[in-house]
Design a protein that fits this description.
Shape: globular
Order of helices and strands: HEEHEHEHEHEHEHEHEEHHEHEHEHEHEH
Radius of gyration: 21 Å
Number of helices: 15
Number of domains: 3
Strand content: 15-25%
Distance between the termini: 52 Å
Structural class: alpha/beta
Length: 350
């Protein structure tokens, strides 16, 4: 029996006890087995509303941690490969973040609120909640940063510099309102003042840093009528010359709703682009560059099957549960606060 058929058999056996969410960047063979697919915001919200005893997360560690933070006490969050991490999330830790926020507040005497990207550790989300801040995703970063601006607060944004600067540009912030915070905690300006609205940590996603201006120029030369759509984790100059930028959900919807025969150059993770091309064969969908997230690729049919089989063995009392994501309940409190704040702000009707 093929592995995919074994997985389907175990899913049927477990029924509503198990839920399999998958991120857009998962390979097509994993996505087809998922109960629902989405970007990090959709997955966080949908998982928080489900009551399955086992949530088998097909993504990377910070996503599974997000599900664990929002889960009920009797739910168990599993990750098929515990080494599936996120280098972007590793760019900053909770102590670094707390030190920078306090430094900014002491030097400027202004209110400063953290906004942290979903692509961050549970420790960073905990620190964010401690300072009454909010998590954000690429789909709602503008709305959440704007929320704090409207309440008279400046924002410390981490860990992705590109999402931060592209959000600042979308909000129309002038150059003197933006400060880059280097990894040693120093600032690009020694003259911190009330005019500075957003302080952005100097982290990046290596998958999206790979896209270059030459890639876009090559696409336009080959496809004169094509459109370029990129993720806002790409460099500022890439986003500025693309036709559209947006989250994975927005990229998917833009291409889905475009006319038959449309031509698209897509600047984001390759497996996602590959799947869109397969799903919409009546359109030309090509990657600007083949950039693969190696950590997302660690989730495959083999370890998905092994994890499901372990769940069955655990239920039958024949094995200990493996690959479970566990976060201390005391640390969950502030981390949950920051995630719930995101859901609250993002749900507001403008």
């Amino acid at each position: 029996m093929k592995t995919i058929d074994k997985i389907k058999e175990l899913k049927t056996k477990l029924g509503s006890k198990v839920l399999i969410p998958a991120h857009h960047y998962q390979s097509p063979e994993v996505v087809v087995l998922a109960d629902f697919v989405g970007d990090s915001y959709k997955l966080a919200v949908d998982c928080s509303r489900k009551k399955s005893e086992f949530i088998l997360f097909c993504g990377v560690r910070f996503m599974a941690e997000g599900a664990e933070i929002l889960s009920e006490a009797d739910q168990k969050i599993l990750l098929p490969d515990l080494t599936a991490g996120c280098p972007l999330a590793d760019h900053i830790d909770g102590k670094q973040m707390e030190d920078v926020i306090n430094d900014i507040a002491n030097r400027t005497k202004e209110k400063i609120t953290p906004v942290v990207y979903m692509n961050s550790s549970s420790e960073v989300k905990e620190t964010c909640g401690k300072f009454n801040g909010s998590v954000c995703t690429s789909s709602n970063a503008k709305k959440i940063v704007e929320y704090y601006f409207e309440r008279g607060s400046s924002v410390f944004f981490a860990p992705d510099y590109n999402l931060g600067i592209n959000t600042a540009r979308e909000l129309g912030l002038a150059e003197n309102a933006i400060i880059k915070v280097k990894k040693d905690g120093s600032f690009t300006s020694d003259n911190l003042a009330d005019s500075h609205k957003i302080f952005i940590w100097d982290g990046n996603c290596h998958v999206h840093k790979r896209f270059l201006m030459n890639d876009l120029e090559d696409f336009r030369e080959k496809y004169e009528t094509g459109k370029i759509i990129v993720h806002p984790e790409c460099d500022e100059e890439i986003v500025s010359v693309a036709d559209i930028s947006g989250s994975t959900a927005k990229i998917y919807e833009e291409i889905k709703n475009s006319p038959t025969g449309s031509i698209w150059g897509v600047g984001t993770e390759f497996h996602f682009v590959e799947r869109i091309a397969q799903e919409f064969p009546n359109k030309t969908v090509v990657p600007i560059r083949k950039s693969i997230c190696g950590n997302m690729a660690k989730i495959n049919l083999e370890n998905l099957y092994e994890t499901l089989n372990n769940i069955v063995q655990f239920i039958d009392g024949k094995a200990k549960l493996k690959n479970q994501i566990k976060i201390d309940e005391n640390k969950k409190v502030n981390a949950r606060r920051s995630l719930e704040k995101m859901i609250e702000i993002a749900s507001r009707v403008l």
